[in-house]
Amino acid sequence: MDTNLFLDGLWYLATPGARLKPGRSLGISIAGLPIVVVRRPDGSVYAVRDICPHRGMPLSIGAIKDDGDIECPYHGWRFNGSGQCSMIPSLCEGQDVDISKISVATYPVTEQQGLVWVFLGVRDEHSPDLPPMVPDMPDGLPQLIESQTFACHIDHAVIGLMDPAHGPFVHAAWWWRTARSIHTKAKKFVPSTRGFTMASHAPSSNSGFYKILGGPKTTEISFQLPGIRIETIRAGKSIINILTAVTPVDAKTTQVTSIFFWKLSGLPALLPVVKPLLAWFTGRFLGQDRDAVVLQQIGLAYDPKLMLINDADTQARWYFQIKHMWSRARADGRAFVNPITETTLRWRS
Ligand code: FES
Ligand SMILES: [Fe+2]
Fold this sequence. Notes:
Blueprint: E1 10-16, E2 24-30, E3 33-39, E4 45-49, E5 63-64, E6 70-71, E7 78-79, E8 85-87, E9 106-107, E10 109-112, E11 115-120, E12 144-150, H1 154-162, H2 167-170, E13 184-192, E14 195-201, H3 208-211, E15 217-224, E16 228-235, E17 238-250, E18 253-263, H4 275-300, H5 314-332, E19 343-348
Antiparallel strand pairs: 1-11, 2-3, 3-4, 4-9, 5-6, 6-7, 7-8, 10-11, 12-18, 13-14, 13-19, 14-15, 15-16, 16-17, 17-18
Helix pairs in contact: 1-5
The protein binds FE2/S2 (inorganic) cluster and fe (ii) ion.
């Protein structure tokens, strides 16, 4: 496991809950760890290491039994949600294998707002009890999900997504924004939970998505470790939350998932009608970011020294700083102290 990939003591997005049907399992990798997430027939979820302790078969290929236990497809050993072996079919009476001593590692798992999260590392008083939530919709369920695999290390995916200066170049399009619409922006940032927040402001006039919403609006964007960005757009009584989870799969692969939640009234209530358009648009937008980091790998293969400049790359600097401070606090067993202070950043985009 790559420690530079994996921040101890945090929740990682495993999968949108809707992709995990009752009685099914899903094998995933987070930070190089093989994990199988299981939904029991009763709807509850658990997560265990996706390697059978008998002879290494991925458990995720196996079946989920009526009681929710997972059955290895090789020799039928079964494991329950506590990781405990519950059955070895080959055992005859009198054969003294103590199955209570056989188990597979488990991971804390929580499903909230329609998303399944897995906790990695040590749980203690300094680690978050629950995964991040989008604001003002406690029972909110995802309306739209777009997920893409980026062939890069998580750091490049994170700083690529928070980077304000690439928009006019990577996302240039006549219907979105163009290099000619570049202007100076000043945004206030404040410290927030394990990260920072671009304080509520009127969104950029040259951003296409906001144009279709109509009416007065504000947007607030928060970022927190391990790689969670939450954008909250308010227009009149409507609220749209976009949670983007950047999850390390392994050292060279990162899963980027954008999940839209909304509560709409007035004109924005028409948004579901344009859902296919929004899905296409989000896919294309994320795809542009993905293509950019893929091309970037060509240069990164030479391991060049990189620059982070003020103020356009300040958020990227903060990300590395926060990551470092979090890792140190975890290693020392103390509370994380956020190094960010209120700052106004200026850039042209
Ligand atoms: S490898 Fe899983 S039961 Fe044998
Ligand atoms: Fe982008």
